[in-house]
Amino acid sequence: MYGTHAIEHGSSRHGRWLRERRLRITLWIAAVEGLLYLFGALHWWVAVALAVIAVAFWWWVGRGSRSDTLRHLSWIFAASQLLVLCVPIALAVVKALAIGVIVILAIVALFFLFRERT
């Protein structure tokens, strides 16, 4: 009795398998597509379009689907595409921070150069 789990009503064997592994599958898909973006094989607008399509598909089809497998597949698709969309956003934030640090260092260097009297 301690090791058994109740089977949810309306679930399928494939749906239960996907549910147990959906976070892992989502992270792997996002990692592969994120690398594709970083290496230039996936463009920013393609990532945005895929995320919009994935979330729309999940919202209108996947959420209310009677198929357990389709519900989980649409969730995995939407979540992975939203995670991939975070890669360019994080890259832009890091790039802006790096530029800000360089600007501050340049201002400090100029201050010391002009302060020095020869």
Give structural notes.
The chain is mainly alpha-helical and 118 residues long. α1 packs parallel to α3 and α2 packs antiparallel against α3. Helix content is 79%, strand content 0%. The longest helix has 48 residues. The chain is built from 3 helices and no strands.
Beta strands, count: 0
Gyration radius (Cα, Å) is 23 Å
Shape: elongated
Summarize the main sheet. Answer: none
Low-confidence stretches: none
Distance between the termini: 86 Å
> Fraction of residues in helices?
over 70%
Tally of contiguous helical segments: 3
Which structural class is indicated by helix and strand composition?
mainly alpha
The amount of beta strand, in percent, is under 5%
What integer is the average pLDDT?
A: 87
Order of helices and strands: HHH
Layout of strands and helices, then pairs:
Elements: H1 13-38, H2 44-62, H3 68-115
Task: Give a short summary of the structure.
The protein is mainly α. It contains three helices and no strands.
Salient structural properties:
118 residues; mainly alpha; 3 helices; elongated
